[in-house]
Design brief:
Blueprint (H helix, E strand, L loop, with lengths): L24 H9 L3 H22 L6 E2 L1 H27 L8 H4 L11 H12 L3 H9 L5 H28 L5 H40 L3 H24 L4 H23 L2 H6 L4 H17 L6 H26 L2 E2 L7 H4 L9 H9 L6 H7 L12 H26 L2 H8 L2 H4 L3 H9 L10 H10 L12 H15 L6 H36 L11 H23 L6 H29 L7 H23 L7 H13 L11 H42 L24 H11 L13
Antiparallel strand pairs: 1-2
Family: Belongs to the peptide transporter carbon starvation (CstA) (TC 2.A.114) family.
Main location: membrane
Membrane topology: Multi-pass membrane protein
Length: 755
């Protein structure tokens, strides 16, 4: 039994009761196997609609394709994957047991370990994992055409991304909420475990920094966005206190209040944007916003999870799921036509102005979080496993949460594809390519020689006027492009052109709120990871309730990602264009590490018949990301290889050049030399550490097979003394048991420490 479970918590000693804490497994199995005629009709219709949608996207392709097929293909595939594939994994690999207490019950401390209502926890988990990746990656990958990205986002999440999230969440929960790096050390030994610990810590720094960079770009010089996003902090604090002290358990009640306050913050932002003091005090530059995010990240990571993190993430989930749902409905009603080719010429030439590189392997590392994300493994072994009430909830939260993120990615891709291609490239090309001017952008985009693209200055100025911005040229980072796409679609449904400004700023606020929740959750997880690592040498650090250790670990991790954020903010190449490939590769390498750890755990449990569930996505992720890493390290093309770009700019400086390529002056040239060297060295570190982890995982798997292992490093089982349903909607058997628990007198109910 691991530290923290040797003594039975007082909360488990209090209340004797004779109610079941879990449904009978045979009753559960019988309910799953029950197929009524209505169920058969519904699932047959879902399958047929999904099949038709894929045929329309991949086979019946004309000059245009209707956007509704993206929505139907995605939702139908997700439903089938969740109902059948995740159930298969639950039955044969996960094997949850609701009679066992989760860490939130047997380690409850009211700060990091706090049993949380599954609906609130789904909101927290989804908000934490759904950061910049599903918004930025698909937008950037749109330059390669619509079909490859669509296939990877939808199919990849069902077979890879959601599988990883589900398994890591369950395995971490069974191990007392241990971090990914610590689980790797336990399962892979000293060499593989140490490599994983270092890799996860360093990669986490890069990931959080780039998430923060996207927020910075979205909020820069936008009083509307700064006010609206800033107001979500006091709203979340109010929600946390309301549920904790005033009306515990009243989820629906505070949900309505929070939603009303959130809408008021958005409307208020528009009003503030038109005031003199708003323009004076809230029109902030990127560096100022970056420092604000750094300070916020530190504070959010040390406050109790119930006070800010969980309610803020739950609040933002309203915004996220509501906005994506609204966009999906608008697409179905309006049925916009997509004029982008299924596969563009940039997919084979690798010379795209948005992200350099060919379709393989750069499509996969660019889309990143929308299909498979290593960052999710850190959240799934960070805050979330410490908050789960019952084991069967891991499927809904882990697998289901990742499917929802993939839907976000598809909506982002459709929004980017829906706008004029000329405007798309003008927005996403770096200032060095467009000169940052309308005339420069028009000349650059028309010079690309794209079929059917004829950009004019009025197209850019009119769009900027419609969305209430001075300029939309070189608004890199993906977020502004998604906002333009969303406003373009929504104004056709509600309000017309006069409402485009509202929808644009609504989307900007939505995106910033979306991503900032991943920054604060990521910082908290980074603190857990560092404490786990330091705890191998100084055991006291493993106690997450020890405040000096928590504060010190938080300060170290915030300082690390804050330094990278400031480097990106001041990058002359636009920051996101340069750093996002590193983010994508690091993120996917981290996913390979997580899947490698999962493979070792499954093998040690003797489940070799089902090892393919993990081995297939691990093999694909390893090939893709190691290939991409080698290209970024060894490519002689400056647009792709970090060291090739470093040499090109260094040689230009040595030759006395005062400007070169995308750098307009000597300072910018020196920054490129410095940044590319840092990125190149980090790429080498990431890929070497990842290869070590993957090889040691394979070694552990082979050893387990030879020994016919049935070992586990799980915490010893503790008998649960409470009950909670597994999914968002209770099944009939769950309703019966829940009614029995609800009928208990208040003094006989186990007190839930969280929401």
């Amino acid at each position: 039994m691991s530290e923290g479970t040797t003594q039975e918590p007082t909360a488990l000693k209090r209340i004797p009761h004779d109610l079941a804490v879990a449904l009978d497994p045979q009753e559960l199995d019988a309910h799953d196997r029950q197929w009524t005629p209505l169920k058969i009709i519904i699932w047959s219709a879902i399958s047929l609609l999904g099949g038709l949608s894929w045929v329309m996207l991949a086979v019946v392709r004309g000059e245009t394709v209707n956007a509704i097929w993206f929505v139907f293909a995605a939702i139908c595939t997700y439903l089938i994957g969740y109902r059948f594939y995740s159930k298969f994994i639950e039955k044969h690999i996960v094997r949850p047991d609701d009679r066992r207490a989760t860490p939130a019950e047997y380690k409850a401390d009211g700060k990091d370990f706090a049993a949380t209502d599954r609906r609130v926890l789904f909101g927290h988990h989804f908000a934490a994992i759904a950061g910049a990746g599903p918004l930025v990656g698909p937008v950037l990958a749109a330059q390669l055409g619509y079909l490859p990205g669509t296939i990877w986002i939808i199919v990849g999440v069902v077979l890879a991304g959601a599988v990883q999230d589900y398994l890591i969440l369950h395995f971490s929960m069974r191990r007392g909420g241990r971090s990914l790096g610590q689980m790797a050390r336990d399962e892979l030994g000293v060499i593989g475990g140490t490599a994983a610990l270092i890799a996860t810590l360093v990669i986490m720094v890069i990931i959080v920094a780039i998430l923060a960079l996207v927020v910075t770009n979205a909020l820069a010089e936008s009083p509307w966005g700064v006010f609206s996003v800033g107001m979500t902090i006091p709203i979340a604090l109010f929600m946390g206190c309301y549920l904790r002290f005033f009306r515990p358990g009243k989820i629906t009640e505070i949900s309505i209040i929070g939603f009303v306050l959130l809408i008021a913050a958005i409307v208020g932002g528009g009003m503030v944007n038109g005031t003199e003091w708003g323009q004076t005090y809230l029109l902030l530059d990127k560096v100022t916003i970056a420092w604000g995010i750094i300070i916020y990240g530190f504070i959010a990571a040390i406050l109790p999870v119930w006070l800010l993190l969980a309610p803020r993430d739950y609040l933002s989930t309203f915004m996220k799921i509501g906005t994506i749902g609204m966009l999906a409905v608008a697409i179905v009603i309006i049925r916009p036509e997509i004029n982008v080719p299924a596969v563009s010429g940039f997919a084979t030439t690798g010379t795209g102005p948005v992200v350099a590189g060919t379709l393989f392997p750069f499509l996969f590392v660019t889309i990143a979080c929308g299909a498979l994300s290593g960052f999710h493994a850190l959240i799934a072994s960070g805050t979330t496993p410490k908050l789960i009430q019952k084991e069967r909830q891991t499927r809904f939260i882990g697998y289901g949460g990742m499917l929802m993120e993939s839907l976000v990615a598809i909506m982002a891709l459709v929004a980017a594809l829906s706008i004029d291609r000329g405007i798309y490239f003008a927005m996403n090309a770096s200032p060095a390519l467009t000169g940052g001017t309308v005339q420069g952008a028009v000349a650059f985009v028309n010079g690309l020689g794209l079929t059917g693209v004829n950009l004019t200055p009025s197209m850019l100025t009119d769009m900027a006027t419609n969305v209430g911005e001075e300029s939309i040229v070189s608004r890199t980072g993906g977020a502004p492009t998604l906002a333009v796409g969303l406003s373009h679609i929504m104004q056709q449904l509600i309000g017309g052109t006069s409402m485009m400004s509202f929808w644009y700023h609504f989307a900007i606020m939505f995106e910033a709120l979306f991503i900032l929740t991943a920054v604060d959750a990521g910082t908290r997880v980074a603190r857990f990871m560092l404490q786990d690592s330091l705890g191998n040498f100084f055991p006291k650090f493993k106690n997450t309730s020890w405040r000096p250790g928590a504060w010190a670990a938080t300060a170290i991790m915030v300082a690390a990602w804050g330094a990278v954020l400031l480097m990106g903010v001041t990058d002359p190449l636009g920051g996101i264009n340069t750093l996002f490939p590193l983010f994508g590769i690091a993120n996917q390498l981290l996913a390979a590490i997580a899947l490698a750890v999962c493979m070792a755990i499954v093998a040690k449990r003797g489940l070799f018949k089902y090892l393919w569930v993990v081995a297939l996505p691990l093999g694909f992720a390893s090939v893709v990301t190691i290939s991409a890493s080698f290209l970024k390290i060894f490519s002689t093309t400056p647009g792709i290889g970090y060291f090739a770009q470093n040499r090109a700019f260094a040689n230009a400086l040595a030759a006395g050049e005062t400007s070169f390529g995308t750098a307009p002056n000597v300072l910018a040239m020196e920054a490129v030399v410095r940044n590319t060297m840092v990125q190149g060295v980090l790429s080498i570190i990431f890929v070497v550490l990842s290869i070590i982890v993957i090889l040691t995982a394979i070694q552990a798997t082979v050893r387990a097979y030879r020994q016919r292992s049935n070992a586990t490093s799980e915490d010893d089982a503790v008998q649960s003394q409470t009950y909670a349903p597994a999914g968002f909607i209770m099944t009939p058997p769950e309703k019966v048991l829940q009614a029995q628990w609800d009928a208990l007198p208040a003094e006989k109910k186990i007190k839930v420490t969280g929401h």
